Description:
Helices cover 44% and strands 22% of the residues. It has helices spanning 55-58, 62-76, 84-94, 99-117, 121-124, 143-155, 169-182, 198-209, 227-235, 250-258, 269-286, 300-308, and strands at 6-24, 27-41, 46-51, 136-138, 160-164, 187-191, 217-219, 241-243, 264-267, 290-293.
Amino acid sequence: MSRTTIQSITVEPLTIPLLEPFSIATGSTSDARNVLITITLEDGSRGYGECAPFTPSTGETQGTALSAAQGCAELIKGRDAAHWRSLSRLTRGVYFSQGTAIAGIEMALLDALTRSYGIPLYVFFGGASTSVETDMSIPMVTPERGYDLAKETVARGIRSIKIKVGGDLRDDVARVEAVREGAPNVGLILDANQGYTANEALICLEALDNRDIRPMLMEQPVHKDDHEGLRYVTQHTTVPIAADESAYSAANVAHLIEMGAVNVVNIKLMKSGFVEALDIAAVCRARHTELMIGAMMESRLAIAAAAHF
């Protein structure tokens, strides 16, 4: 038996209260209802993974993620973690619609494997970088609260702020203005989370341009299935447009790039898992499309894994 044979897998709920409610265009939550996965190998190496379903974005819940992760665990228990790509194909073949469960299983699997090998995950993936640049998200709050959060973010040394939009256009513009006032020297990213029509997205960008506010990019302005709307926005503004909810597989991302619908792709492990995310990254690099790494309602566990990725 190999030292990297999977000896045991535990799957359990992980519910984390938020410091304050987090609201986006498609919903609001006051806690992160996630799933914790622990994989132990034959040599005693232990790895941890997290499923972070966010129902408004993926349709998954803590319950569905828990059930799917338990099913994935049954499929791979007793197999060799060193064959992680083939194990991914096995779980994905059965639970292809449960991205967060696959992500959590792959996260724990790779964590255990690299601990067994005695190397950090980022080295396993090639060690291209030892630092990351991050941003802080400001949810759909009042302009006054947005201003305060912007000031707090700058005080922490963060140089980019993501602002949730996709609701009432006047409220969104007022929120962005307030954040810009509170943080005049940082980069701004707008994230509509599918909340706009194509025309509304362009109206928002034009209104901000009239106020001398130019975002670094706008994420997912339209519904994830509205690829034509996404292309329309991309082709009618000079602000880079990123696909988030629309980008969940390598084949799907290749299609978006080929039709000229995006400038940037936001990879989230919770949408696709590690293996598919690696394939998405390869597609984007081959087509000279910019990449960013995003997160959902994740704890430091999954965010750390994304940083290693």
